[in-house]
Structures are given as C-alpha cells and as structure tokens.
Amino acid sequence: MTLIKRNMLSGFSIVLVALILYSQTLSMGDAFLTEGIHPMDYPRVLIGLLAVLGFIIAFKPSASACSTGEHIAPITSRTPLMLLALSLYALLFVYVGFYVSSVVGASCCALVMGWKRCGLLLLVNLVGVACIWLLFTYALKIPLPVFPWW
Question: I want to staple 18 with a disulfide (CB 3.0 to 4.6 A). Which of 36, 41, 50, 120 is the partner?
Fold first, then answer.
C-alpha cells in the first residue's frame, strides 16, 4: 500500500472516530440548558478539531514522501486495534457508563501500545478516571453516564 493510500486511510479513520464521538454529544439533548455556553460546546469544538486533523492527514502530501520517495509507515499493525478500541469506547460509553468504559478503554489502548506493568496501569487508570469524574461533576457541572445498575 502506498504512503498516500495509507495517509488517506488513517485520515478518514480519524474522521470516522470524530463522527462517532460527535454523535455521542447529541445524545445529551437539551437536558443541560443553561445561560451562556452550552456544556457540550467545548467537547464539540475539540471533536471538530480532531476531524480537521483527520482531513489534513488524508489530503496533505507527506513532505518526506515528496522529497525522498522513502515510504514511512504512518499506520502500523497497532492502528486498527487502537481504532477498534476507541470506536467501541465511544459507542459503549452511554450504555456501560463512564467508569467501566473508561477504565477498560484506557487499559486496552495502553496494552495495545505495549504497556507491560498491569498493576500500575490499573492504578493510573483508576486515578485518571477519578480525576476526570471530579472535573466533570464539580467543576463543569456535567453529569457523566453511569452503569444502569448503579
């Protein structure tokens, strides 16, 4: 596969993930009507920037490929696994809840990228999820989805 085709595949995969993430911001509806900035505006801007990055990767020719003709693999065998993990995380976030999906999703991504210390990985993920939960719940006043049985 040529470098241009790989870049297009990678870029459109990023855009696909951005579209899935954007669809999750629409499920909240207008339950958080407040004066001023809507709480979902900030995540939507970040997701929009992710989509723009995907288009840039897909359509901007690689400088190294143009100058030297050398092929640098922009995607590896880990890329499809990462895209699968992130897509499943985005799709299951509403149904499984923030806590479970975040710990499992972050652990899967770290293991795909080669993380070996599982005990430390679990600790870091739990602390990270707790910090994000505190930020969203108390600072941003945005409730996160929870597992239906909790």
Answer: 50
Distance CA 118, CA 95 (A): 26
Which pLDDT tens digit goes with each residue over 8-28?
787 888 888 888 888 888 765
Q: Contact, 84 vs 36, CB < 8 A?
A: no
- Whole-number Cα distances in Å, 120 to 60, 61, 133: 39, 40, 20
Q: Residue ranges of the domains in the chain? A: 1-73, 76-150
- Do 39 and 107 touch, CB atoms closer than 8 A? no
| Distant-in-sequence, close-in-space partners of 44: CB < 8 Å, separation ≥ 6 | 22, 25
Q: Report which of 59, 138, 125, 51 is spatially closest to residue 89, judged by C-alpha positions.
A: 125
